[in-house]
Amino acid sequence: MGRESPLTLGRIDYANAWPLFHHLDGYAGEAGVRIVSRVPAELNRALREGETDISAISSFAYAQNSEDYLLLPDLSVSSVGRVNSILLFMKRPLEQVKNGRIALTTASATSVNLLKIIMAKYAEGQPQYERAEPDLDSMLENADAALLIGDPAIRASWSAGKLHVLDLGELWHRWTGLGMTYAVVAVRKEAAARWPQAIASLLQAMRESKRLSLGNPQALIDHACRTIGGEPGYWARYFTELRYDFGPMQQQGLALYFRLARQLGLLERDVHMEFFSEQSALQVNE
């Protein structure tokens, strides 16, 4: 990283993450922060390989590389109940699908492994999984169910017809009583050590973007209607039901998710969540 300071920030290219980034463009231009927008799987790789310094990434990707990252406090894409954009589309009810064939989106890691946890621990099933590009019709050609996330899941939910649609966030909350965190914002430890003040400033800007977005979501609603479709009422409920903080219910839910993933062999080691310290950044400035 032979730069003097400008940070590269990874932005999830789905509506569910818009509030964290919607009001950042002005700040980014002034602060010299370069923003790259990609799907979660691409952002996971970019942060891991050092192409970005700080990024919204899948929670599961954080767990896989937690020794290299610090979490930014107060920021996540979570739900306590319905998430509305992580959906399992089934030809038949869950009881008849749990030992069948399920097509999985290639776009994210958290949701795929959440489904595997639910199938193994909640439904006590043993389905066969296959990876597929996120197109519902083609995914269901040879599978009993298909997992979609993000904007493709939202669009598919509007025309699901006779398919059974399972919201994984809603099921997780009903099963555990906890929230579920799908994406976190993580910074590479070497970037945090080199530019602590810049990271602290960006953290504050993302908090402010979240505050402004949720305080007046009409701009997000209008943008969603223009770019994705749907009705304003749907998007008003969508952004209201998602959570963007990272409080105790989200952290407890994510810790449980990590433990269950470890039990199933989806993670190679236990995960201890480490957070970026703004106090350390202030001390550097003194």
TrEMBL record:
Query: Top enzyme class of this protein?
Result: lyase
Which reaction is catalysed here?
chorismate = 3-[(1-carboxyvinyl)-oxy]benzoate + H2O
Q: Which InterPro entries match?
A: Menaquinone_biosynth, MqnA
Keywords, sorted A to Z: Lyase, Menaquinone biosynthesis
- EC annotation? 4.2.1.151
* Biological pathway: Quinol/quinone metabolism; menaquinone biosynthesis
Looking up PANTHER family in the UniProt record yields: CHORISMATE DEHYDRATASE (PTHR37690)
Q: Which family does it belong to?
A: Belongs to the MqnA/MqnD family. MqnA subfamily.
Q: Say what the protein does.
A: Catalyzes the dehydration of chorismate into 3-[(1-carboxyvinyl)oxy]benzoate, a step in the biosynthesis of menaquinone (MK, vitamin K2).
This protein is called: Chorismate dehydratase
Its organism's taxonomic lineage begins at: Bacteria, Bacillati, Bacillota, Bacilli, Bacillales
Name of encoding gene: mqnA
